[in-house]
Amino acid sequence: MSLSAAQRDHYWAKGWVVAEGVFARHEADRVAKVLLAIAGRERESGKDGYNLDISEDGDRAPRKINEPFAKDAVCREMLLDARLTSRMEQLLGHQPLLVVDQAFLKPPRFGSAKPYHQDNFYFRCHPDDEVITAWLALDDADEQNGCLRYIDGSHLGPIIPHEQVAGEEYNHVPPPELIDLSKESPARVRKGGVVFHHSKALHTSHRNSSDRWRKGWATHWVTANVTCEKETLDRAYFRRPELREVFAR
Asked: The domain that contains 176 carries what CATH number?
């Protein structure tokens, strides 16, 4: 349940690192099945909105699920597993505390892209080095189906300006001249693996052009030392009274 010295060095030099085999493939499949069931329930209740991907032919498939940790015990079990949290503690130097999560479910052939951004542009939590994202691969992820891509070393600089994407109020992206694509690296990862990235690491994922799903689960964590410029931590999972018993186990 530990990262190697080479993996830790890669994280601090590049701003991200892949850890393969954190969970077994069947465990990833179990969670993926739960997430698709949640998406089905939310669609039936009318909660689709921008959480659907729609193809040019009008096909519809789930794109995003907000806060699956709060919606199912299977999700809670996986995120609080020591195989995940112990690796983050190695990187952070302190116990990781779960803030929020989202699942991104890129369907085959038309799963949409996510533009370049820094998580801490949205969160505004500091110290930046103690804010981390763990991205759980629920399918094999590569360049064809929309794996994460990073600008190596971007976490060593500041939080840079982001501008709202026209027609996409939930997406903000830095000006192109601030993104050095010569330093871009794909984070290929197999089902059950995890990609860890720093809060200031510039990252993106392209459209899914393959005939395979690319289901990923983004989970965001801080340490007890972290404070925020905005309301990010007000409804953090670890502070919610209704989840106190979950975190006490």
From this structure: 2.60.120.620
If one counts the domains in the chain, the total is 1
Instruction: Give the Cβ contact number of residue 167 at 10 Å.
Output: 6
Find the domain containing 219 and state its range.
Answer: 5-248
Alpha helical stretches, state H, 136-228: none
Name the pTM for this structure.
0.94
Beta carbons within 8 Å of 44's beta carbon, 6+ residues apart: none
Could you count the other beta carbons within 10 Å of the beta carbon of residue 195?
24
Tens digit of each residue's pLDDT (9 = 90 or more) over 200-215:
999 999 999 999 999 9
Name the strand (E) or helix (H) holding 242.
none
DSSP structure string for 62-125: E-EEE-GGGT-HHHHHHHT-HHHHHHHHHHHSS--EEEEEEEEEE-TTTPPPEEEE-HHHHH-E
Structure tokens at 167: 């027609």
